[in-house]
Amino acid sequence: MLRQLLPRAGRAWRAPAARQLLPCSLSARQPVRCYSIQPEAASRAKPLDVDPSRLSITKTSATKELKDPATLIFGREFTDHMLTIEWTQQDGWLAPQITPYQNLSLDPAACVLHYAFECFEGMKAYKDKNGNVRLFRPDKNMERMNKSAARIALPTFSPTAVIDLISQFAKLESRFIPDQRGYSLYLRPTMIGTQKTLGVGPPGSALLYVIASPVGPYYPTGFKAVSLEATDYAVRAWPGGVGDKKLGANYAPCVVPQTEAASRGFQQNLWLFGEQEYVTEVGTMNMFVAMKNKETGQKELLTAPLDGTILPGVTRDSILALAREKLAPEGWMISERKYTMKEVAEAADEGRLMEAFGAGTAAIVSPVRKISWKGQLVDCGLSEHEESGEIALRMKGWIEGRQYGDEEHEWSHVC
Amino acid sequence: MLRQLLPRAGRAWRAPAARQLLPCSLSARQPVRCYSIQPEAASRAKPLDVDPSRLSITKTSATKELKDPATLIFGREFTDHMLTIEWTQQDGWLAPQITPYQNLSLDPAACVLHYAFECFEGMKAYKDKNGNVRLFRPDKNMERMNKSAARIALPTFSPTAVIDLISQFAKLESRFIPDQRGYSLYLRPTMIGTQKTLGVGPPGSALLYVIASPVGPYYPTGFKAVSLEATDYAVRAWPGGVGDKKLGANYAPCVVPQTEAASRGFQQNLWLFGEQEYVTEVGTMNMFVAMKNKETGQKELLTAPLDGTILPGVTRDSILALAREKLAPEGWMISERKYTMKEVAEAADEGRLMEAFGAGTAAIVSPVRKISWKGQLVDCGLSEHEESGEIALRMKGWIEGRQYGDEEHEWSHVC
């Protein structure tokens, strides 16, 4: 059990001082995208951090029937209970509670409903071959959630304390985790501002809660490659914006472009940025491309850098780490760098584009067949009967091996 | 009573077809900011629009005591009742209800809490000298709310039907409107996505509700000029984004920069955009500047154009209309154009900057004394003992005259 309470609850984010506002110089031709806001150490320590020893558990008297795993739809069915931790500016984090899953009663003036004081995480609990419940890199989720919260003036918390509570919650709900490969319990830590006020300011009260939804494999019958619409008429994120934080604010505005792409037969948007048409993200996933270098022929696995407009995905980070560990020795170059849609299209034209895939918690990897761009269909290297490239397939295997505890690894946290 | 039901309920916004995605050409030196998404005619008419004839009213049995108007804090106290209208994808808009003010019961997986499916309006009801309740340009608010809703895949509605319902609601709550000048009833129409799902997609159910909060004058003892911090390290809005819609998503990300500015003694952020440092908005208000032309000496009242990054404020529109009606004949040039912080600072240095003010529903106008920019304090033309320039003062008088019905005008809607 982790009990290393860090003295950092409270509101942690501060803008840089006036003299340090622009760490990067701007040029007229090349918009610089690295001046995103970074969280710093807590400026106002609160008296009470999240304290797992104060947890109270009220079990439901009406347990739900388990669904046939084959019928599960992502995020529709939830487990018996939920974890809640209230925060007030006066008292800090109150005693955590596990209660029966239930509706939240919110004042119609609650600030979450008006000004989007909300952030969340997506993570999964897995059952290993011995029946243990495991989380995958929960420290990364908690670190990101604290950054998201601080960016919108919501309180931060001790990551280890909340991991401890989530572990207890996941174990309590373990009967909802099917023990087949590919199945898991999707966990949704969420924080909302609850203060009743229409004044725009830092919320004086908040609620951190975690709900859980059993989910099946993203591709129940094996990979199914998707096709993307390169999107330039709507822009997901901007330098100085909040595209690198997991805020509700980043999601609703992307739904209509997604619906539009779908109406033209494309499953996801590929978000481009700027007149250079940099490739940023795909739908709600990070984007990876594998191609051969034009001059040297060296294989390169590349993804956009964390310049403030890219969500720092846990799967993205895991793929990069695995690539450096296992692909670099095979001669691959592993790159976090800006790249353009033109570069991808050229590589495709010249037969150098090996494969492309999205990366995220839901699917781990999501292979890409084609990208619609400026009236052409860019072929991403899969043959007609292939649904995944080799790298995506190997990555999925490596990551699942650690998620399900087949390989003992520090990324896997036994609850 | 307005009862002109327009057949446009449903989801109205569609991205332009692929060939029309970029109406403006892009140049390397001058980022073009006019390719914001525009709503179009409804693509999927729903069977039922909002129908005021189906309104049911349940009055409270516990009426609230009226507060001393002098003690009112913006958006903290609410009236006895609220107006609610539910929507489902299957049935369209259900029967409107006026009920006692009460908490909303929301599933913890409701999409508003995760993906910021939320938009709102700010408008006011005034009591005229005959005791009539009046709304100010409610058609503008409803038009904008439909655009906001459509942009995030929430349902649209007949503006006239909702104005009818808001009028009935405001009349029912008229005892909460103090009849002194400067007082009013702040109305907050809000729409949220209510579907219980963690899948990111168009909400299958929604709730439109209106709550009301009695408010006093923004400046109870006369104008008090504010000072601003020109902000470049955080960006409120960008081309292809949603800065021109009244979405919750635009608000939470601005609170920390606002807190930071306040910690340095500045009441609001002045949001700059791009390396050119265009002046866009001030806090949650539109920005106006009055200056003399460098060459001709002609007086110019200017504000940023509606290029997709600027909120189309009702007060902004009213000021522009009044300026064209009353100031242009006095020789003023009235401009909606891009202007830079450098331009403002130069005008100040050369004694050509006459005044600057924010414009919004809360304050009508909010005079600006100084702007902190690149280590200098730009003086906005007020002398030491002045709290407002002449134009701000005249605008406030003209607008209040129409709001309170002193001047009969089409902008004022008698409930």
Commentary on this structure:
The structure is a homodimer of 415-residue chains. Chain A is of the alpha+beta class and 415 residues long. Chain A is 19% helix and 27% strand. Chain A has seven helices and 20 strands. In chain A, strands 1, 2, 3, 4, 6, 7, 8, 9, 10 and 20 form a ten-stranded mixed β-sheet that branches. In chain A, a hairpin with a 5-residue loop joins strand 7 (123-127) and strand 8 (133-136). In chain A, helix 2 (138-151) crosses helix 3. The longest helix of chain A is centred in the middle third of the chain and has 14 residues, at 138-151. The first copy, chain A, starts with 55 loop residues before the first strand and ends with a strand. The relative contact order of chain A is 0.14. Mean pLDDT of chain A is 90; it is low at 1-44. Chains A and B meet through strand 5, helix 1, strand 9, strand 10 and helix 4 of A and strand 5, helix 1, strand 9, strand 10 and helix 4 of B.
Largest interface: A-B, 82 and 83 residues
How far apart lie the N and C ends of chain A? 8 Å
* Main pleated-sheet profile of chain A: 10 strands, mixed
> What structural class do the secondary elements of chain A suggest?
alpha+beta
Q: How would you state the average pLDDT of chain A, rounded? A: 90
Instruction: Calculate Rg of chain A over CA atoms.
Output: 22 Å
Q: What is the general shape of chain A? A: globular
How do the helices and strands follow one another from N- to C-terminus of chain A?
Answer: EEEEEHEEEHHEEEHEEEEHEHEEEHE
Number of alpha- plus pi-helical segments of chain A: 7
